[in-house]
């Protein structure tokens, strides 16, 4: 594999118990498998109300001194947090995922491999249908409805826009920073803009690691995201 440095960007909002150990373990394992490659780590605190986050960050920095921590006070959403982190990143490749590294490390390494090949500008995680056997019923129903509407209305290379792991080169970074949606459908907006600007997009199958805990679905946020879906359609 060609050796190219990259940055990992993680959005953080009231992370679940055990997140410190998960980050330290995942980062160390990735570093070990990609020997001699510089891997930057950016954590963006999206206005967490938990009083323990800053202390936890200090523990992470003890093990990962190069960590870049980017906090702000007002919660603005995952999309906003990732744009803050991506804008600060300096490596030629950026990969973002969720704070608990929910996907198997082989999935992240496969996305990295697709980007360093030089054949792709964007590599997006795509979940197999078996993924839905592991998620709560409400989340499963919402995901399947969204995939149906994407297939019906949008001309993009996948119906699965919301897997929490994606990567891109400098061309992809420029498009990512054009997104405006602050919460969850920024992923869809990014893929739509990338397709419209004719970037080379690779759909990489990804798989959950064992023990992932799913967060509660906020119905008010879902209503807002319904409006954001319409906004993306009007971009056409």
Specify Rg, calculated over alpha carbons: 17 Å
Please indicate the percent range of residues in DSSP E strands (runs of 2 or more). 15-25%
What's the number of extended β-strand segments?
7
Please, how many helices? 8
Q: Which structural class fits the helix and strand makeup?
A: alpha/beta
Neighbour order of strands in the largest sheet: 3-2-1-4-6-5-7
What name does CATH use for the topology?
Spore Coat Polysaccharide Biosynthesis Protein SpsA, Chain A
User: Could you list the spans in which at least 5 consecutive residues all have pLDDT below 50?
Assistant: none
Helicity level: 40-55%
What overall geometry do the principal axes of the alpha carbons give? globular
**What is the CATH architecture descriptor?**
Alpha-Beta Complex
């Amino acid at each position: 594999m060609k050796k190219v440095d990259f940055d990992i960007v993680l959005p953080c909002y009231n992370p679940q118990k055990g997140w410190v150990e998960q980050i330290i373990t995942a980062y160390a394992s990735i570093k070990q498998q990609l020997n001699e490659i510089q891997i930057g780590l950016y954590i963006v605190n999206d206005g967490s109300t938990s009083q323990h986050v800053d202390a936890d960050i200090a523990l992470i920095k003890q093990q990962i001194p190069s960590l870049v921590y980017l906090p702000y006070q007002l919660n603005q959403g995952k999309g906003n947090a990732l744009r803050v982190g991506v804008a600060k990143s300096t490596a030629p490749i950026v990969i973002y995922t969720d704070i608990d590294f929910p996907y198997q490390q082989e999935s992240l390494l496969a996305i990295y491999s697709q980007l360093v090949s030089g054949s792709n500008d964007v590599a997006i995680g795509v979940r197999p249908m078996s993924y839905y056997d592991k998620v709560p019923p409400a989340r499963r129903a919402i995901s399947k409805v969204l995939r149906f509407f994407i297939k019906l209305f949008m001309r993009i290379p996948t119906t699965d826009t919301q897997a929490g792991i994606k990567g891109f080169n400098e061309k992809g970074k420029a498009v990512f920073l054009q997104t405006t949606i602050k919460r969850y459908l920024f992923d869809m907006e990014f893929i739509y803009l990338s397709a419209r600007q004719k970037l080379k997009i690779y759909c990489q199958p990804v798989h959950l690691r064992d023990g992932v805990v799913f967060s509660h679905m906020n119905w008010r946020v879902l209503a807002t995201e319904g409006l954001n879906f319409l906004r993306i359609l009007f971009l056409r």
